[in-house]
Structures are given as C-alpha cells and as structure tokens.
Amino acid sequence: MSVKRTLLLIEDDAGAADALRRVLVNEGYTVSCEGRGDSGLGTAETINFDVVISDLKLPGLDGLELVKRLHQAKPRLPIILMTAHGTTETAIEATKLGAYDYLLKPFEMEELLDLVEKAVESSRLMSEPVKMGECVSARNAIIGNSRLMQGIYKEIGRVAAKPITVLIRGETGTGKELIARAIYQHSDRSAAPFVAVNCAAIPETLLESELFGHERGAFTGADMRRIGRFEQASGGTLFLDEIGDMSLNTQAKLLRVLQEKYIHRLGGREPIPIDARVIAATHRDLEKALHDKQFREDLYYRLNVAVIKTPALRHRSEDIPNLVRYLMQIYGADFDIESPSIQPEALQFLQNQPWPGNVRELENVVRQVLLLAGRYTISIEHVREVVAKVGEAVAGGNQSIAAGIGTYLSRARRGEMEGVHATVIEEVERELFGQAIELAQGNQAKAARWLGVSRITMREKLNHFGLHPGQSNPAD
C-alpha cells in the first residue's frame, strides 16, 4: 500500500494551477493550492508537505523570498521553483538560498513529474527516521541485536558526528542505504539535505551532469543551466550508492572534488565551492577492481578511511526471527492482516536458509508468505512453498541468462559476430523494461520507480525499444 505524498502548489495563474494540479493528482499525489506567496508561506510553515512547487513571480511575496524564508523554517523541505525564460540567474540564486531545483517555463509535464518524484524521494529519505535495534515498529529500521549488529551501531555512533567521508561495504541487500541515512540523521548535518545517487542506475554519459550539473550548451540537449547533486546537498550529505560502478573518468573528477572542495559544472569554468559530506557504498570487491585497473587507487585510499562493513544475513542468523516478526508486522498492516502469526517450525526453517539475497530476499519471501497464508497462521508448508518457488525463479533466470551469453560468446569465438557486450545489454534491457512496463500496466512512473531510473530514462528506453503498452490505471 503506497503512502500518499502531499504537495503544495503555489501559483497565481488559476488556469495553470488547475492544469498542474490535475496532472499531479492523476499521478497519485495529494495537492493543496495557494495563489499568493505570503499565504503559501504560511500554509507551508504550519502544515507538513513532502514537496513545495512555487512560481517565481507571485503576489504578496515573490518566490525568491519565499524560498529563503521557508528554507530557514524547514531546511529539509524540498522546494521546486518554476520560472520563465530570462530569469535563470534568479533561479540559480534561489538554489543558493535553499531551493531543491527549478524548471524553466514552458516545460514538459514529464520533466515536472520526474523532478517531483526525485524531490519526494529526497523528502522521504530525510524525514523518515531510521530506527535501530530489536523491537522496532518503524517502517525504516535496522533490525538486529546480534554481536555483529551491535558492532554496526557502535560504528555508526563513532563516525556520525565526525566530518569525514564514510565508505559502507557489503553484499547487495544488507541495508547499506539505511546505514547511510542513520549516519546522516545522527550527524550535525541532519537539518540539511540528504541526497542519494545510485551510480549504477545512471548511464555514464549522464552521471557527471547528475553529480556536478551543467551549463547551457554543454552538450546536445542541454538547453538550460542545471545544478547537480553536490549543490543540492549543500550543507548536508550526499550518498553515492554503488560507487564501485563509477567510470574511471568520473572517479578522477570525484577525487578532485573530495580533495579541493569545489566543482565545475559541465561546460563551465567557474569553480563552485561545495560543502557536502560524502557517504559512499558498494557491494563490489574494490581490491579486485584495483587489481583489474577498474578503480582508482588514489580514490580508494581517499574513501577507505572510515569503513563500515555490513554483515551478510547468513552470518547473523540469530537476528532472523526478529527480522521476520518485524517484516510480518510491517507488511501485515499493508495487507490488512491483523497480528499475523507464524509457527515456530516455520520460523526455524527460515532461520536455516542461506539467504544469498540477504534481508532484501527475506523481505520478498515474507511478503509472499503473508499473501499465501492470508489471515491464517503461517505454517512450515507455506514457507517451504514460497522459498522453493523463489529459488526456482532465480535459478531459472540465471540459467537462461547464462545460456544466452554462452551462445553469443561461442559465436564470437567462431568469428560469426562482434560486440557481444552491447548485444547482451541491449537484449537484457529490452526484456527488463518490457516486463516492467507490462507489470505496471503501462504506468511509466511506477515502472521507473521499480527499476530505479528516472521517468525520462524510462520514456527514452520505451521509445528506443518500441514498447508502448496501454496504460489502464495512471494513478498509483
């Protein structure tokens, strides 16, 4: 059950406000509207919203002053500014005052929706506290009281208040982002933004622009100046997830930023001072990447100072019963199952599994088991059925992918084809985006969120592959 996100739209043009409100409501947002800057400021100060969208030119109080005052009152609240062509410098000034980002009019609705989705996610990461321990009911929690997890809690406390870069290492699904957020929330930067970037989910050609921003004309399609994530995170924390997937060229630029504390936007010459703490994470073996010349040695030593290693779930199996009960409580509420229960034998069976996908895999199994058992007590038969089904699906997918890659490599060895890497990536992406948009019933926003890509990337991939299924339900 998705949480309804609330937006405040401040726009004095009644027609434009109504058109924007209808589009946003159709995407599943709850939208309040104000027509003046002063009344919009008062509403935003007294009512909690996930994102504020404001025009620059407003009666009562202009958008620039609104951004300044509202950011001072609620520094974690993302503010998106809409402004007409010719006022880009004013928009940049608004960013310096605390605006999350801005849009130049006229803009495409897809552009607005993509930006709103990013701002909503940023708001969620900042506002939803990460709880830690054994008996926790919050939706975002690090569960476990084992000796290994006690060590993690100590490490979080040790590094949170120190002005140092932190590297979080561990297998996929071990909760690295939750640990990054816990560090942020216990730091002296907790009132400032927390901005997350998944380096593996953004194409290499776009990642530099995402991090550092770009000037107008920096590349084809750059029709306006855009700030990057480092500027958005000013005064706060920038979380670089999957940093091991970053290209060597971008690694070099990141190293310079960490050393010199300023950035250059793409296509720009002006150095821009930045004040953002960096927390990085990766599941990759960085030592092997160093040996294979895929990761820079100087960046490795720059990051490898304060390191937190997240334990695999199989190494802390004593935490599994509490994890299962926690997940049952969270998803039981989502599925309208009051006080779900589980047999001791079923719990023991889950505790004895190897969980190669770690907590993320356990979470998936618990969701399916709850749906299978319904309001009845979860039995060992329920658990065995779901675990077997999940294992078969993973094994079947791996075998299918491996078989396809083997065929292509054999043909390449015989000289029958070239470019195996590009071919495999193309086919996997076609299948991935095709299945996602089918499962989402044509809802591009939902499919993009599942895949961890932007709406713009989703639309470009669908156009590239010629995938255009009908959308039966545009709202989440």
Annotate the secondary structure layout.
Layout: E1 6-10, H1 14-26, E2 30-34, H2 37-46, E3 51-55, H3 63-73, E4 79-84, H4 88-97, E5 101-105, H5 109-127, E6 131-133, E7 141-143, H6 147-160, E8 166-169, H7 176-185, E9 194-198, H8 204-212, H9 229-232, E10 237-241, H10 248-260, E11 262-263, E12 272-273, E13 277-282, H11 286-291, H12 297-303, E14 306-309, H13 320-334, H14 344-351, H15 358-373, H16 380-413, H17 420-439, H18 444-451, H19 455-465
Parallel strand pairs: 1-2, 1-3, 3-4, 4-5, 6-7, 8-13, 8-14, 9-10, 10-13
Antiparallel strand pairs: 11-12
Helix pairs in contact: 2-3, 3-4, 6-7, 13-15, 14-16, 15-16, 17-18, 17-19, 18-19
Keywords: Activator, ATP-binding, Cytoplasm, DNA-binding, Nitrogen fixation, Nucleotide-binding, Phosphoprotein, Repressor, Transcription, Transcription regulation, Two-component regulatory system
Domain Response regulatory: 6-120
Pfam family, one: Sigma54_activat
Give the domain tally: 3
Number of separate strands: 14
Cα radius of gyration in angstroms:
24 Å
Number of helices: 19
CATH topology of the largest domain: Rossmann fold
Strand order of the largest sheet: 2-1-3-4-5
Broad CATH class of the largest domain: Alpha Beta
Report the CATH superfamily of the largest domain.
Answer: P-loop containing nucleotide triphosphate hydrolases
Main pleated-sheet profile: 5 strands, parallel
In percent, how much strand structure appears in the residues?
5-15%
Separation of termini? Answer: 9 Å
Q: For the residues shown, what is the average pLDDT?
A: 87
User: Could you list the spans in which at least 5 consecutive residues all have pLDDT below 50?
Assistant: 471-476
* CATH architecture designation of the largest domain: 3-Layer(aba) Sandwich
The general outline is globular
- In helices, the fraction of residues equals 40-55%
Pfam families: AAA_lid_14 (PF25601), HTH_8 (PF02954), Response_reg (PF00072), Sigma54_activat (PF00158)
Domain Sigma-54 factor interaction: 142-371
Subcellular location: Cytoplasm
Modified residues (4-aspartylphosphate): 55
